[in-house]
Amino acid sequence: MDLDVGFVRTRTSSASVSPRYTVRMSEWSVQRIEQLAPDSASLKAAQGIAKPNKWQNLGSGEQLIWGECQGSGANPYQVRVHLLDAAYKCSCPSRKLPCKHTLGLLLLMASGTPMPVATTPGYVAEWSANRSKRAEARQRQEAPEAPPDRDAQAKRVEKREHRIASGLDQLEVWLGDIVQQGLAAARGQPPAFWSQMAARLVDAQAPGVARRVRELADQAASATRWQSTLLAGVARLQLLIDAYRNLDQLPAELAAEVRSLIGWTQDQEALREREGLRDQWLVVGRRQTQDEQLRVQLTWLRGESSARWALILEFAVGNQPLPANFVIGQVLDAELAFFEGCPQLRALERHRHASLPPRFALPAPMDTAAMQSEYARLLAQNPWLERWPMLLGPVTPTMVADRLWLVDAAHRRVPVVGNFAHGWQLAALASAGPLQVFGEWNGEVFDPLTIARDAELFTIARLGELPVLSRVA
Amino acid sequence: MASTASLSAWDRLVSMATLGTQRNAPGTQVPWPDPSLVMAGEADARTFLRAAAATYLWQVAGRRAAVEPSITEAPQFPADAAQRAPVSEPAAWRLARMINGELVDLIPEWFALADSAGKTLPVHWLPTVLDKVSPELCAQFSAVLGPSASWLADRNDRWRVRPAALEPSEQRWMEGTLVERCADFAMLRFRDPGLARDWLQRTWSTDPPEAREAFVKLLLSGLSMEDEPLLEAALDDKRKGVRLAAAECLARLPESAHARRNLARLEPLFVLEEAKTGLLAKFRKRQLVVQLPAALDKAAIRDGVEQKPPAQRKIGERIFWLTQMLSMAPPAYWCRRFGCDAATLMQATTETEFATDLLGALSSAQMRHPDDEWAKVLCDAWVASSGDAQAIAQALAGLVISAPAERREALFQSVLRQLESRDFNITLLLMNSRLPWTAGTTKLALQSLSARVRGETQTWSHARTLLDDWASRCDVESAARTISELSMTCPDKSPWRNALEHMTEIVEFRATMKKELLA
Fold this sequence. Notes:
The complex is a heterodimer of chains A (473) and B (519).
Chain A (H helix, E strand, L loop, with lengths): L1 E4 L2 E4 L4 E2 L12 H7 L3 H10 L5 E7 L2 E6 L7 E6 L4 E4 L9 H11 L11 H21 L7 H32 L1 H5 L3 H13 L3 H15 L4 H20 L6 H11 L5 H6 L3 E15 L2 E10 L5 E9 L13 E8 L8 E10 L11 H14 L6 E13 L2 E6 L4 E3 L7 H7 L5 E7 L4 E8 L2 E8 L2 E7 L1
Parallel strand pairs in A: 3-12
Antiparallel strand pairs in A: 1-2, 4-5, 5-6, 6-7, 8-9, 8-11, 9-10, 11-12, 13-14, 13-16, 14-15, 16-17, 17-18, 18-19
Chain B lengths: L3 H16 L25 H18 L22 E2 L2 H11 L7 H10 L2 E2 L5 H7 L2 H6 L1 H4 L1 H7 L16 H6 L2 H14 L1 H11 L5 H10 L9 H7 L5 H12 L5 H10 L3 E3 L15 E3 L7 H5 L14 H12 L2 H8 L3 H9 L4 H14 L3 H13 L4 H14 L2 H17 L5 H6 L6 H17 L7 H11 L2 H14 L7 H22 L1
Parallel strand pairs in B: 1-2
Antiparallel strand pairs in B: 3-4
Helix pairs in contact in B: 1-2, 4-28, 10-11, 10-12, 12-14, 13-14, 15-17, 17-20, 19-21, 20-21, 20-22, 21-22, 21-23, 22-23, 23-25, 25-27, 26-28, 27-28
């Protein structure tokens, strides 16, 4: 299924899969399975089903597990799950995906229940075969049957360029008015003042710019240092207008970055065609955001030998579960295709070769000074840079003036984001020694996501509303 | 590197922009971070914004945290060599789930299991627990929280690991609130009953009546003949509650003058016929002749005998007086007096016209003066009686709990089995009993449940409440073995089905919890 989500276009089925790949069942922790559940009712029902006596003919082999579960129908439901890419099918009529039987089978496996049947039953083999057929069909489609109408396409692009240009012209006048009238006057404007401009930019097919204009409204309304934040926001927009008008004078990487900042999307299929970067990728951190109906999952990977960062974005709409393709601490021998950008960060998993033994540690961290220099270097490449993944340590979380700071060995400190709910958990963990922290740094505040101490890895998590620090194992 | 000039340049730009460039025309004064960047041309808003963008980036890129040796790291907690083993991560997650609202009532059990397994909570879970679990529970299981919890609690005012008041304080006794004084008094009475009595005597004349009542009630623990003078005096108190509480204490002191007075009143009212001699002796039972008191004198009222029966009780005044007196005297006394065993006397009692009232009175007496022989005999009598089921269950629960700790379980089991064999619904007894469930109790309970589940078709509105209670009290291992079978044999349409499924969930939750913590 293709999701068209604003400026991001993505495909829910991700990497292609090597047949020789071996999945260790232990990679499927209960938490990972819980994450798959479409809602808590399904999970609860699944927990009820995850009992050996409710199942017959449990079996496993070749990355697959299967079993038959007696439900309310006459025939038992046939459930099969592919462990590598988390594909599944159940013969029950439930419209929830995955259904309780699928989750139940996974939970059963996670609890260590033996799945002794080794001969693949017909319904599993058939499904597997269909899946490979579909994958082949998709590959064939990738060489499009009818050549695209290049003229029409060029016309569309030209039309959009035109709209964007006029949208940016309007924006420039609007920005100019703001500084002429004064930021104080802008702060007094009703919400419509900002949302109308944002809407005009959406019409002008520049959704990336529209997003930044909406953010200006928040910056104007923020409590502290709003003048400074608002001016920075307005000034960087002017810089973006200037850059887009002079796109041909920019280095190719930066030009691509500017185009995506404006809201041009990159063709993911074309991206998949290109050769990617194969490395051993450590899954370092994860963050989820919710924006009305759309939930976004950001997963940070770090290449072992390339020392590069990769950001995987995954989306779910409404009650749809977010995929659980990556587990913190997992090491993947995989090939990633990077989106164009400056510096390149966002990536797709193009091919997964194998899952290596997990590692419950973070790569070598930097101290505060090195992190700030690194950020300055990145800012010089991309003046619109916002959050960037950083490894900071060893640091001790310390409360100074009612705020949580991370203090390094050289007694330099950086503030942690204001709404951070896990301060005491961090302090408790640091009671036995300094921490290494993975998180996002935006030049001003640090947002911790993963913590390492003494060969143990912890993630910032929530159970309902309850902030918890969870050890990964 | 950040220079003060560029920082202040940004500040100047911000203040210009705040007021609006229209009002203070920037002209040539627009500050740029570096002279090489200055743009020629008109000084319009666009140029101003470009200068602002450059200055902003300059400023952010140049930002470096200063070295601040004054920020001292929090002293680290000294690692304890003799640390307990940590509970596993899944076990801690389960606790978090309960804190988050799932089966909240099982939290104390989690702690008790962790404590008995000699385990401690990993530090990263402590803030969650200290934040959400009651301070009393945290204090009770401070060993599970470990020394790091105290370290953390020292740094957060909202958290408490130790109970607030550890030592009874004489000052608080003189000046504190009634709640504080009761807490101190109870603790002191537990440790040093004599000293507690001294404290009480010191303030007795000035204590308000409700305080006197509360303290006399607390005298029940650590009670001895040394308390007699104080209690005897309290029988003349102005407040009825104080008088009754004192009589209650005195009734439990068989050596007291109060007890002698009570027996003197009772003596003439009971006569057990002498055992017959001769050939037919075996077949003739001894008969108990009961005489009701003719009147209630002031001395008896002073000793705690109430004149009027409560309105809802259908009982004659005179038999009501008799039962009150009888319930104060040790049942064993009657065996000595009549030279017979408890069973003989019980048998004789059953044959009088006051059988039920006397059985109740003797049971109350047994709870005040526990006696092994009587415990058994009275339980048997209740099991054999045909009164109100709820009353029978209540009486049996009281008798069992008043038996000496080491006999309780055996007594309870025998009562349960006898009831079961008489087709009595043991649910009522299980509901009334506060005894923890052993494997045996659990087995019997589930057996009776199984029969009901198969037999009953009408909806019983309390099924869910009842089974939830059972699920959290039963012996989890023996329950886990049989419960899933039970819920599978339960007919689909049975009114018990939902309740049973929920019970199964709780039992399985507890079973897994135990496995996780003891593993």
